[in-house]
Model the fold of this input.
Amino acid sequence: MRYETFIALRYLRGRRQTQFISLITYFSVGGVAIGVAALAIVLSTMNGLETEVRQKILDTNAHLRVTTFHGHGIEGGTWQAVMDTLRTEPGITGVTPFIESEGLIGGRERVTAVIRGIDPATVDEVYMLSGALRFGSMDLGSTFEPLGPGYSQQIEYHGMLVGWDLSQRVGNVGQKGYVAVLPEAESASAIPLIPRVRPRNIKITGVFQTGLYEYDVTYAYLGLEAAQDLLGMGDRVTGLAVRLDDMWSAKAVKERLERRLPYPYYISTWIEQNKNLFAWMTIEKWAMFIVLGLIIMVAAFNIISTLIMVVLEKKRDIGILKAMGASRAGVQRVFVSQGMVVGVIGTIIGLVIGYGFCWAQQTFRLISIPPDVYFINAVPIDMRLLDFILITLLSLLLCLLASVYPARRAASLVPVEAIRYE
Done:
């Protein structure tokens, strides 16, 4: 063991007359531990929330979307051939056609919604809609019911699935109503008086819940043919939704598909479709990292005050050391080592506390939340090695910087002045 480390450890243990300094040292260790633990717990929680949100978004959205630049959709007969092309691409596990447009649903209330036309036979290859079904069934076919008692004329009703929060406004399973397409000039918040296309009768056959309010209050699903009829699209579709075996390979698959499907096809990834949301979550995570890092910085100031008091209390010892031949750098290392020992011990304790709490939350679900509100029954945790490494580096760096000033003060002492009155 180097003599600098030996002396630093002796100073940390303290003597009877320096118990106050030792107490402040313990507070410094505790402050570092609390800051590290808080950072580990909060970042792991934010990772868990990000993972949950991303998974729920991808359960209701595609990893890739193939549409057209002009926005008029893919012509009938062509989109089936494009589907066959996509299915031959390595990494693609599911493809389904879709139609998407803004519309008006009339039931208990009149509300605007995103109307998505889907193919029930292939929709679960991409959207996992069956797993999100809360009530009713996936029956999106047409049914015919008499106009009323004594009437032989029948009315056609198209089956529709609506989100949980949307159902609170338009009606639950069995509710009848109509759906119409909004005029091109209408804003999303307006309720049009005259639909652009003749309304179609609908009957709610199922209610789904994704756990994301934005989707559950906005989306409604029709059968593909019913949506084509409503929008007057003939046999065209808006685009094709694609699911991959590895969502993180979306960019690479997109680049390959762009060579196979040139203009007028436009391919977008799930990251591009939700760019603002994930950018905001990343910024929020780093903001929390910086803010909670201030806790460790407060502990670092405790280290500064502790070392300064040690320098003042050990002034005579420092003078003797320098008189015996200790170099300026050697004296600096004594006090830097003392500060780093505090940092290392506090960091290790904080990492253990943080990891222990996160493990307990993952295993025993200590902190529960209302599942009917958040669609998850406990605070999610996702521990990542990189986060723990960054926390460790931040903590040790702050402790190192906190040790520099007191160490330089100690090294600048003149031996004669330090022991003159001893």
Observations:
- The chain is about 55% helix and 20% strand.
- The first helix runs from residue 3 to 13.
- The two ends are 30 Å apart (CA to CA).
